[in-house]
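Reminder to self: tokens first, then the designed residues, so the page reads top to bottom the way the pipeline ran.
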């Protein structure tokens, strides 16, 4: 499915389109269309109707199947259709002490470990992380949630920040600069921030900027760590 040509304001919430996900209906439809498109194709292949009796059964089969057999978008969409058997929330989006949600979250990211970089691009992974974080903000640190919220409109049009840029955005959020960041209307403006001196470690201080900004394989931007039950998920930035 083609991405939007450019970032634009949402006609419903007024923020950059996508940033109001999932509370804003327009933003939710804009983001979820990529997942829904693949899910509808799977439904058609199985000769099932959306919202029909067989859709939930298909979702259960997708989640029970081996990792990689279905597109990651279908795995994510299936998770929105089958409630957690322990807490009743969307799997992976329940309270921190829900063991089954922790297991579902770990299983979700096993797809990325198996697929990246052969069948999943870094941009797709970043978009997947952003959506998952915003669907369960209580499971992440507030600064992480806000950083992905800021970036989501640009991820939707194919922009991909480097690891260093994501870390700097989060540092500025921690420093109380969210409002200023939210006023940025371009990816270049949002990611072109100076590094805050108080956020530098001795190791980073002497590391070349090009190396800091490199999306190295195995970094959390590509491969998020798995949380333990009762603990917030590791920061994916």
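Designed residues (237 positions):
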């Amino acid at each position: 499915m083609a991405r939007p040509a450019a970032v634009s304001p949402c006609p419903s919430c007024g923020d950059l389109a996508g940033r109001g996900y999932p509370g804003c209906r327009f933003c939710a439809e804009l983001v979820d269309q990529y997942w829904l498109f693949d899910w509808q194709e799977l439904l058609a292949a199985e000769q099932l109707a959306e919202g029909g009796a067989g859709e939930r059964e298909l979702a259960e089969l997708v989640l029970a199947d081996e990792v990689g057999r279905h597109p990651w978008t279908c795995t994510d969409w299936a998770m929105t259709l089958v409630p957690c058997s322990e807490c009743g929330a969307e799997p992976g989006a329940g309270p921190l002490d829900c063991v089954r949600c922790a297991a579902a979250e770990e299983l979700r990211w096993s797809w990325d470990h198996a697929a990246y970089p052969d069948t999943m691009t870094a941009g797709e992974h970043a978009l997947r992380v952003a959506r998952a974080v915003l669907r369960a903000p209580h499971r992440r640190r507030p600064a992480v949630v806000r950083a992905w919220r800021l970036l989501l409109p640009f991820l939707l049009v194919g922009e991909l920040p480097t690891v260093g840029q994501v870390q700097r955005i989060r540092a500025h959020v921690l420093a109380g600069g969210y409002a200023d960041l939210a006023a940025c209307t371009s990816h270049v403006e949002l990611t072109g921030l100076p590094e805050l001196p108080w956020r530098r470690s001795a190791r980073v201080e002497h590391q070349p900027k090009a190396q800091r900004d490199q999306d190295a394989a195995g970094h959390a931007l590509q491969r998020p760590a798995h949380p333990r039950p009762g603990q917030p998920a590791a920061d994916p930035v």
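The two ends are 27 Å apart (CA to CA).
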